[in-house]
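Table S2 (text version). Query chain:
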Amino acid sequence: MPPVTRTSSSPVAESTPRTYGLGPRTAAVLVFGSSFAVLVVEIVALRLLAPYLGLTLETSTMVIGIALTAIALGSWLGGRIADQVDPRRLIGPALGVSGAVVALTPAALRTTAEWAPSMLLLIAALTILLPGALLSAVSPIVTKLRLTSLAETGTVVGRLSGVGTFGAIVGTVLTGFVLVARLPVSGILIGLGSLLVVGSALVEWRTRGWSSTPALALVVVAGGLAMTVAPGGCDKETRYHCARVVADPDRGSGRTLVLDGLRHSYVDIDDPTLLEFEYVRAIASVVDVAFPEGAPLAAHHLGGGGFTIPRYLAATRPGTRSLVSEIDSGVVSINRDRLGLGSAAGVDVRAEDGRLGLRRLDAGSRDLVVGDAFGGVSVPWHLTTVEAMADVRRVLDEDGLYVANLIDHGELAFARAEVATLSEVFEYVALVGAPADIGLDRTATSEGGNLVVLASNRATDLRASQASLDARRTGWKIATGDDLTSWIGDAQPLTDDYAPVDQLLQPYSSPSGH
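Corresponding structure-token output:
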């Protein structure tokens, strides 16, 4: 019987590992870049959605959850498909299609938010999920290409996992500390989309020729052009806001600062004593009565916005020193460049977090603290708590006054909790607002909006304050004592340990009001 001759179709030959020729450096670049891109998309998506959904815990949780779903789905499907199809055919399309979607994302989200807001969550989910899943599929595909021997499985998988994680870290840090501070979010995404399409072209060129890459490049160009006509544009994208300055057609020197689609401040460049918004007139009325007329004050402001109150104090109380803690240096720049702030006498600005700014102040160093850092769709919760208010009380002198603008709608659960919080810290608390909103007119329906709360360890002249409110034609009333206690109801004070502000706050859905 002749000896058995082994052929190329024998089991030994078939078990020989297949080599796809993907070098370790190329593999590392692909995995690093795809992981980097996923985190850039996730972080920038938060910025794109903030003007419409608020920069709240819910918004952040939603975006993070969608991104993690995309990563899990892409990793699972990418590995499964790589076992069934030649992996070399998958990387180029994954990069190219994700790049096209990323480039179209700014125009798609802003157009949807303006023209079909009910579809915003769906479109947002798709613009995160689709590129996130495609990019996350790159890692298992590349791993499949690099696994030329079972003896190296641990080394290959571990190395590529580490490279991918490092890419995600770099994407997070670079976006948060560099890109967002220097580039508009639309520019970041269009640039990233372009890089992904270029990467797709290089991969396709090495494996299958140019294929559909030119078509994807046209989609990226279309994304860039769409941003020129998409609604929701900004005069300036700051670190925290989409900001615009709108001229008052009825008053040549009037300007409205719009942040994230909401009218945030009104400034008359020529007349700082002209106060447009009711809540600003209410703050001015309370302050006018609480301190001797014309007497200079040492004031601290939590939040700058249009710097309306600091300008008013400088004009009506010469010698007043106002220190403003404004976390967004971009807003400060807009005030100086477009709203005539310049080097206003007595107004000093620190680009800092309000809570940290309070800690820097000496005890008993301020006559007045003004809180105006709360927005219509989100609230910096760490400025609402008992501990934060204790710091406010610390920096006030014994006759000092804290006055703050609150914004809430619906059941006003956040506003009630904040007033309950102040009642834990200060001896005297009063609430100023529309009668229906503060429980003084039970025949009318509460609409919510702006409320002004004042707190002190000394009694203020509420009758004189009411007269001042009436003189400014606000239509607002003052609730205190039993009326205020009844209005607070069973609302619980907010603390650093438990402050569900995002859950309590009911934002206003219209972008036209402050």
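Notes on Table S2: The chain has 17 helices and twelve strands. The first helix runs from residue 11 to 14.
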